[in-house]
Q: What sequence folds into this?
């Protein structure tokens, strides 16, 4: 299929998306006013009330298309892009939109970050041209793509699939692994600090209608399979006792030994160690290898922060922390008593020095 055919198919799929969205709206409470046919006016989700008209991109920022919305579960900054906030194309300068995107991302690209793309609301009236999308992808060079750890696409449609086919020759395999699709907000909730996320009301209503639609469909009850026993070589999500028993009595788990050894040899001078994150897909791939008892060579991944992330993940997924729940109160008492003793010793030393000073002064 030629590029022209794909572009025509994309237009057709977008029209179908609009028809399906309209049908879904009619199935429940209408989202349009019957007299004018225009969308209901709702407050812009998360728009900064302090946004000044002196903002260099006020003409674009005022729409609330782009929002900075807290952090994900790995501590990475989250930036949202909401298609439903885009006005018709004749009311928005897309070149200015691109400049505003770069202006916003420039503040965060030096650290790891995540983008959430809310697809709902894109239609034939407000969609940018395919040539603009192509030039935009090229505009964001390695500096922007390197620290982008995940691109979450929420409520994808066939239009997105066709678009991906069109741009696939331009998209690197490494970047493609960062793209993750979510059909509902509940799926997104598992990866982000949802209470910090800024979701437009239109997207919330659309998601609610989708959930209601799926609830209405009868489906045969699914039997919940019994939980699988861990593999003999399992490393993540099992107890230290299990690891010891399966590792011929070795006290130090292999993941712990390999990651610490690697970091001691090559990572002690790396800036931001244990603060930077890594690709979720890469983390899962390494977990799978370790759980299957296969070797992992961190040199193959070219990221000195990766073994640190794996080490943190291993500790985080322990059923019981290293400082066990049973010993928690005792540890608190020990640290508290040590602190009290140090304070008393410090106060006593100061008092002794003060007395000696006073005696010396009196002798004069």
A:
């Amino acid at each position: 299929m030629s590029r022209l055919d794909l572009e025509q198919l994309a237009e057709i799929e977008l029209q179908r998306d609009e028809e399906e969205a309209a049908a879904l709206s009619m199935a429940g409470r209408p989202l349009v006013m019957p007299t004018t046919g225009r969308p209901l006016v709702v407050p812009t989700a998360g728009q900064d009330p302090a946004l000044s008209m002196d903002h260099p991109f006020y003409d674009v920022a005022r729409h609330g298309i782009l929002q900075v919305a807290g952090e994900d579960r790995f501590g990475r900054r989250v930036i949202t892009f909401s298609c439903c906030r885009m006005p018709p194309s004749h009311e928005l300068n897309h070149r200015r939109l691109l400049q505003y995107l770069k202006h916003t991302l420039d503040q965060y690209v030096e650290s790891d970050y995540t983008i959430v793309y809310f697809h709902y609301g894109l239609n034939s009236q407000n969609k940018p041209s395919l040539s603009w999308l192509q030039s935009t992808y090229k505009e964001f060079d390695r500096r922007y793509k390197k620290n982008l750890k995940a691109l979450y696409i929420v409520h994808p449609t066939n239009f997105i699939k066709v678009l991906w086919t069109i741009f696939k020759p331009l998209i690197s395999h490494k970047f493609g692994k960062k793209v993750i699709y979510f059909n509902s907000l509940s799926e997104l909730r598992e990866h982000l600090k949802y209470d910090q996320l800024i979701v437009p009301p239109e997207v919330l209503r659309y998601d609610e209608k989708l959930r209601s639609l799926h609830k209405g469909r009868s489906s045969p009850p699914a039997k919940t399979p019994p939980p699988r026993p861990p593999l003999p070589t399992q490393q993540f999500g099992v107890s230290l006792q299990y690891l010891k028993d399966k590792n011929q009595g070795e006290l130090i788990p292999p993941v712990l030994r390999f990651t610490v050894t690697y970091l001691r040899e090559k990572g002690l001078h790396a800036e931001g160690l244990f603060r930077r994150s890594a690709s979720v897909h890469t983390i899962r791939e390494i977990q799978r290898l370790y759980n299957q008892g296969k070797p992992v060579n961190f040199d193959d991944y070219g990221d000195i922060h990766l073994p640190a992330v794996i080490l943190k993940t291993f500790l985080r997924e322990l059923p019981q922390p290293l400082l066990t729940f049973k010993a928690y109160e005792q540890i608190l008492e020990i640290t508290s008593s040590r602190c009290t003793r140090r304070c008393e010793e410090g106060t006593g030393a100061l008092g002794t020095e003060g007395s000696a000073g006073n005696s010396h002064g009196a002798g004069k």
Remarks:
- The longest helix spans residues 325-363.
